[in-house]
Amino acid sequence: MNPMITTGLDRQRRGTALSVNVNKIALLRNQRDLAIPSVVGLATVALEAGAHGITVHPRPDERHVRRHDVADLHALMRGWPEAEFNLEGNPFHNLMELVREVRPQQCTFVPDSAEQATSDHGWDFAADGARLAPLIDEARSLGVRVSLFVDADPGAMAAARAIGADRVELYTEPFAQAWGTPREGAVLERFAATARAAAAAGLGVNAGHDLNRDNLGLFLAEVPGVLEVSIGHALIADALLLGMREAVRAYLDVIASPAAR
Asked: Helices 95-102 and 125-141 sit at what angle, rounded to 10 degrees?
């Protein structure tokens, strides 16, 4: 198997990277036939505030991020060589065409249906592994790192690596729902066990979905080796109160806090 795709940023960075998902900015813009709020403008503010990357999840119906947004953000990211562009989506829908076009640093394959409001489960490798493998190979041949959206399941990590993935992204909504409840410890341990299994299989670990300023520090403290968190809904909601620049800095402060380390 080929070695995992890495970049200079991977080798230089220490700790957990913050990638800002800007889908909700596009969703708000799309309510009117106007160019405000600006997806590229606010992505620029996020990068200027210290975000390590920008994530988008373009869906086939373009209900938030549109094809031109992907092209515009790709052009923006050329001016930020130290940051990473992450395209998320279902590779059996519209994602691969965009990956071929812009060749982002990372693509995250997500098993959502076209009508889903948001992602709500990880891949079933027994059912989909054979179909995913050639698309993973293609993306990697383009120089794109591939991450697979997964449930907290230690037993699935070897299968993710076997079909060629570089990383997995842990689907963290179950943790967010358990946070602050009696189930919190058991749920966190399953995520930690999954991260350990991923590392043992040679996979990098990302995480995302319903992480916020309140629960992020605990997650990073208990789940080892998280390389990147992708945060959109909560961060954009915080930006409505704080402004984008201060919201990004607040999340970076959580990531850098002693609790997260």
From this structure: 20
Q: What is the Cα–Cα distance from 16 to 31, expressed in whole angstroms? A: 34
* Nearest alpha carbon to residue 156 among 183, 120, 121: 121
| Nearest residue to 87 (alpha-carbon basis) of 22, 165, 12, 150 | 22
Domains of the chain: 8-256 (3.20.20.70)
Question: Can you give the pTM of this predicted structure?
Answer: 0.91
- In this structure, what token pair is assigned to residue 2? 């080929």
Q: Taking the chain, what is the end-to-end CA distance rounded to the nearest angstrom?
A: 32
CB 232 within 8 A of CB 23: yes
* Maximum distance among all Cα pairs of the chain, rounded to whole angstroms: 49
The three-state DSSP-derived secondary structure of 118-180 is: CCCCCCCHHHHHHHHHHHHHHHHHCCCEEEEEECCCHHHHHHHHHCCCCEEEEECHHHHHHCC
User: Measured between alpha carbons, how far is 63 from 102 in angstroms, rounded to an integer?
Assistant: 20
Active site (catalytic) residues: 57, 88, 209
Burial of 155 (0-12, 13-18, 19+ CB in 10 A): exposed
Q: What are phi and psi of 171, to 5 degrees?
A: -80, 110
Is pLDDT at 7 greater than 80 in this prediction?
no
CA contacts within 13 A on the Cβ side of 239: 21
Which residue reads 């040679």 in tokens? Answer: 202
pLDDT per position as a tens digit, 179-196? 999 999 999 999 999 999
DSSP assignments along 200-219, one per residue: HHT-EEEEESS--TTTHHHH
Question: Do the Cβ atoms of 145 and 4 come closer than 8 Å?
Answer: yes
Residue-wise pLDDT tens digits, 91-144? 999 999 999 999 999 999 999 866 766 666 888 999 999 999 999 999 999 999
